[in-house]
Write a structure and sequence with these properties.
Layout: H1 18-25, H2 40-101, H3 109-138
Length: about 140
């Protein structure tokens, strides 16, 4: 088995020393070299073109997918930012109304921490996907 995989149609060429071995054997074992209607360089060009096209489709699809994810996560981050501002105003107004009515103040610290942690995760994902998108575009 050769180290470099050779297409099946090109294997009819037995190597550089085949003609020497045939001539050394004399007329007893005169085997003709197998000719192929395919030129190995044409096969190389076709496979190289197909490889480049498949590689382009793979990179283009991956960059398109990561760019769509990046846009979605950026929109989610903006919505989280606006949502936190709205939710903090709602907390403030709700706390004032509850204090005026004489009720106990609600504790929103766990909910606020969850909002902030989710914004951090979204921000890390936006940065990472932006980097992945630029890697695919650069290729």
């Amino acid at each position: 088995m050769p180290v470099i995989p050779i297409p099946r149609r090109v294997r009819s060429f037995h190597g550089p020393h085949t003609t020497c071995m045939h001539s050394a054997c004399g007329p007893a074992h005169t085997a003709q070299l197998v000719r192929s209607k395919y030129n190995s360089f044409d096969l190389y060009l076709k496979s190289r073109w197909m490889y480049g096209f498949v590689r382009f489709l793979l990179y283009f699809g991956c960059s398109l997918f990561t760019s769509l994810l990046w846009v979605a996560l950026s929109a989610l981050f903006c919505l989280q930012y606006v949502g936190v501002r709205v939710f903090l105003r709602l907390q403030y107004k709700l706390s004032i109304i509850l204090l005026l009515l004489g009720h106990q103040r609600l504790d929103f610290s766990l909910l606020n921490d969850l909002f902030i942690y989710s914004m951090h995760v979204t921000m890390f994902l936006v940065g990472g996907l932006g980097w992945c998108f630029m890697v695919f575009v650069d290729m």
